[in-house]
Automatic annotation (TrEMBL):
One of its GO terms (molecular function) is inositol-3-phosphate synthase activity. Transmembrane segments: none annotated. InterPro entries: MIPS, Myo-inos-1-P_Synthase, Myo-inos-1-P_Synthase_GAPDH, NAD(P)-bd_dom_sf. This is Inositol-3-phosphate synthase. GO terms for biological process: inositol biosynthetic process; phospholipid biosynthetic process. Belongs to the myo-inositol 1-phosphate synthase family. SUPFAM superfamilies: Glyceraldehyde-3-phosphate dehydrogenase-like, C-terminal domain, NAD(P)-binding Rossmann-fold domains. Residues 195-300 form the Myo-inositol-1-phosphate synthase GAPDH-like domain.
Length: 360
């Protein structure tokens, strides 16, 4: 067991900006402090300040070559500034492009020219920096690029936290690869602290447990960051729809007509996300009941604290020699885990995992 949780980040966008700011903002938090967005200031043996970024990979030529403290403020990042981040001595490196940049996003992402810049060997960088956990913060729809980074993690004996809906932890073949090598993996598609998915899950679960027969439900999301711009093309968000839909429908034992997922890109919203939830059903006497909710939140910080807990979970697993998919951790912190578990039960299992009472 080491004193630090050494992390590398693939994709230094808004989520990474919020995470890096958060590590600075809460580095002096006391163990008994209430910190919004994380389970514990000291998660097992690891304090928030024990999480240290040691490598970062990007395709954005405005970020490549800069220290991460500078790169997180480069366009197109629009995450609100809530902490001053000093120079960290970690230079952003060119990562593989593959399908990580959709054709309609090359200009928005300031994508580098492959004739001028060559991507680094990710696995070699992970080895050289003695990385413990690699976070995948690539754009939605980066199926091939995600697998490139997942394989690099396997090659370098590094745990993998899959923050996007490209299925790794929930894919039997990939989960088996991590189990075979004794490397922990958690995913897929990070849940926010209080986001559209967790709110929708709780609403559907509450309605079902109170005896409401749910007839139909939808969740529509709009936002102004590059995540929403990227998902303007339906083919980029197919797995996102699957991830978000299964996270909600797994709460009820029968099929319900649904429409769940991003619906539009509104540039002037920047990092604000607006979610509209609708649920229609019947109560006693077959009488109609309708619920309409609206959620507005800064999108990127909403998941940053969650990821800080995830990487500490993965480091604990590495310390204990646990490999393969972490079911309790994945179910509580991700939308599309290997196994869907109701959130209160998953929360208790994570607490038991921290204490060493359950293995994964």
């Amino acid at each position: 067991m080491t004193e630090k949780v050494r992390i590398a980040i693939a994709g230094l966008g808004n989520c990474a900006s919020a995470l890096i700011q958060g590590l600075e903002y809460y580095k002096n938090a006391k163990e008994e402090d209430f910190v919004p967005g994380i389970m514990h200031v000291k998660f097992g043996p690891y304090h928030i300040r024990d999480v240290e970024v040691v490598a970062a990979f990007e395709v954005n030529k405005l970020k490549i070559g800069k220290d991460i403290s500078e790169a997180i403020w480069q366009p197109p990042n629009v995450c609100n500034k809530f902490a001053d981040v000093p120079h960290k001595g970690v230079t952003v490196l060119p990562g593989p492009i593959s399908d990580g940049v959709a054709p309609h996003m090359r200009e928005s992402f300031y994508c580098y020219d492959e004739n001028e810049i060559k991507p680094v060997d990710v696995a070699q960088v992970l080895r050289e920096t003695k990385t413990d956990v690699l976070i995948n913060f690539l754009p939605v729809g980066s199926e091939k690029a995600t697998k490139i980074y997942a394989q690099a993690a396997l090659d370098a004996n590094v745990a993998f936290a899959n923050g996007i809906p490209a299925f790794i932890a929930s894919n039997e073949e990939w989960a088996a690869k991590f189990e075979e090598k004794g490397i922990p993996v958690a995913g897929d598609d990070i849940k926010s602290q209080l986001g559209a998915t967790i709110l929708h899950r709780m609403l559907v679960r509450l309605a079902h447990e109170r005896g409401i027969k749910i007839d139909e439900t939808f969740q529509l999301n709009v936002g102004g960051n590059t995540d929403f711009e990227n998902m303007k093309k339906e083919y980029r968000l197919q797995t996102k729809r699957v991830s978000k839909t299964e996270a909600v429908t797994s709460m009820i034992p029968y099929e319900v007509p649904t429409r769940i997922g991003p619906s539009d890109y509104v540039p002037f919203l920047e990092d604000e996300k607006v979610c509209y939830l609708w649920l229609k059903g019947k109560n006693f006497g077959e009488q109609p009941i309708t619920v309409q909710l609206k959620l507005s939140v800064q999108d990127s910080p909403n998941s940053a604290g969650v990821m800080i807990d995830v990487v500490r979970s993965l480091k604990i697993a590495k310390d204990r020699g646990i490999g393969g998919k972490l079911e309790s951790v994945s179910s509580y912190f991700f939308k599309h885990p290997p196994k869907q578990i109701p959130d209160p039960i998953a929360h208790d299992l994570v607490e038991k995992f921290i204490r060493g009472e359950v293995s994964n």
